[in-house]
Amino acid sequence: MADQTASSPAGSGAAVLAASAPAAGPAAPAGPVPPVRDGGGRRRGARRHRWPVVVPFFAFLAVCFGLPAGTMVYGAFTVVDPASGEGRFSTENVGGSLSGAYATGLTGSVELSLVTALLATVIGTLIAQAVVSSPRPALRGVVVSASGVLANFSGAPLAFAFIATLGTTGTVTQLLHLDRTGFSLYSFTGLVLAYLYFMVPLMVVTVLPALDGLRSQWQEAAASCGATRGQYWRHVGIPVLTPSLLGGAVLMFGTAFASHATAAVMVGSSQPLITIQIANALNGNVLVGQENLALAMSLNMVVIALLVMAVQIPLQRRSTRWLG
Length: 324
Fold this sequence. Notes:
By secondary structure, the protein is mostly helical. Helices cover 74% and strands 2% of the residues. Helix 10 packs antiparallel against helix 13.
């Protein structure tokens, strides 16, 4: 009796296990598989819904950039007959913008831009490196703030400030008797000084992120291998910074090439610059009816600006990849 009572729980447990075990035999047919939705169609639909959002942006580009650019190109290749007032397609304006005094102005602008870009790149990089290597954080804040302000101080206010300081009757000119040394603010050298006033701070702001991207571990690794500081910069620092420095130099060139107000107020037409010649042609200060010639000179500037951008964008991408 005791044996039967003891075996009863075991038997009931075996019965439960047998009932919970899957039945032997052929497997039951699987139910219908739900269809897989196509994610590509959903993405295409999302892209279609995004188009109305960017339509105002493209409309803005077409009105503010496309329309002026088209008008400039059309006027540059159009010659108007003074007698009948009818226009005809011709390359006369473009040819005239690349010859004579206008070619001299284009060459003068390129020369001024090259000199100021080279000097601003060297001086700005040295100042930025001194700020980065300084152990005083307050110095960095002061230099960055001052550079941000001075980089935007250009045009007519800057020209008047230089005239009052280094002009013929300027304060510094009278104190230091610069007129006896043959220095003249209204010359190529004076323009270089005025342009460097806002280009050097702009270069400091431009190259600071690249200098911050140089990792201290690189210099420590070079020192552990026995390299001097000069060897580190020659074999590691400068090669890594080369794309950023070249990109900054190209940016400085474009900034100087497009500047107009500072040179117009300081030197007027005494220095041959393409921007001043365009303003004179549009205003009729030299000859009347030269508006299309001014558009042709503007087209030359746009072509040079596009070449500058074509060089700067790959350099900027490479610098971001190396220092990112």
